[in-house]
Amino acid sequence: MNKGPGSDPGAGLACVSSALLAMSRHLEVRDVLQTIVVSARQLLDAEYAALGVPDDHGGFAQFVVDGVSEEQWKAIGPLPRQHGILAAMLRDATPQRLADVRQDPRFEGWPDAHPEMSDFIGLPVADGDEVLGALFLANKRCPKPEGGCGFTAADEELLGILAQHAAIALTNARLYERSRELTIAGERARLAHELHDAVAQKLFSLRLTAQAATALVDRDPARAKSEMQQVAALAAEAADELRAAVVELRPAALDEDGLVATLRTQIQVLDRAHTARVTFAARSVRALPAAQEEALLRVAQEALHNALRHSGAGRVEVTLARQGPSGVLLRVADDGGGFDPSAVRRAGRHLGLVSMRDRAQGVGGTLTVESEPGKGTAIEMEVPGG
Questions:
Q1: 9-34 pLDDT tens trace
Q2: Beta pairing partners, 279
Q3: In angstroms, rounded to a whole number, what is the distance separating the alpha carbons of residues 313 and 304?
Q4: Partners of 163 in beta bridges
Q5: Three-state DSSP class for 68?
Q6: How many whole angstroms separate alpha carbon 305 and alpha carbon 312?
Q7: Cα separations (Å) of 370 from 7, 199, 344, 375?
Q8: pTM above 0.70, yes or no
């Protein structure tokens, strides 16, 4: 007899609730896909589960499995193409429940290392008319009825509920990643604009100095030589700024390089692009979860923008340090004009403090602001988990 969640409505609803909560905790598309697959396999007590997200070329952009070891997965080989039962679910967007997938006329075989599968259930994951992926499970862990499928109509109903919410979670994750890409693009554009201004100033000075040298060649060769040396120095500075621009226009390196290296690179660029002295120091900082590192980076960028654009600071110091046994503290301090932190409405509108506080709270952290007119500003963000 089937003892899975489908045979007990209360247990089924509890399992679905747990699965939905698990999906809602993740924002990265890959994490959401993996959570959907794991939740589906646990919900229906199946031996294998998989979720494929189609690309535009007859294959899968992403394919996530559960119940297959890493060694088995590597032995299976390349990602599958959209054929057989998978293609049917993506094309027709209808559920499939089979007693033995191998006996279905659409079955086209699988690689030698692929595990043997018999009873099968598959559902499309759809957002309206758009099919986002195909979710399927095999080998229900229960006594199989004679000539029938181990997966029941109740299983199909539960999986249908999960698939509907999986579509929402997957759509939200995609929107989050798109929003993050736009935020990164905006930060890169802003830095590129600052670098452009710095390079333009260098080139303007270079042109004026070259013109002065030309005018002095005949009547004051010694002074002309001095001016030409200045031309060489300005040209070298302009070349440095252009190299920095090239670095900043490359994709953001937070995922590859980590928070410390990414902050150090960006602060070096800002130090060259502005007259203010911008410094960075990191002390005993460990790698953090991706969401926390991104929040710290965005707050640092916003605070740096405020200090360099609005405060009139001559010096800006950024530090990142271990705080206590499990925390990390970011501090951005400047010697600029400062402001009155009690003017919440004005400060929030002009200095982005509301956005920074939201970022800090979103990762379980806190943001504090110390400032006074004429005495500079210090913004601190502390997050747990360092």
A1: 445 566 666 666 666 665 677 778 88
A2: 317
A3: 11
A4: none
A5: coil
A6: 11
A7: 60, 34, 13, 10
A8: no
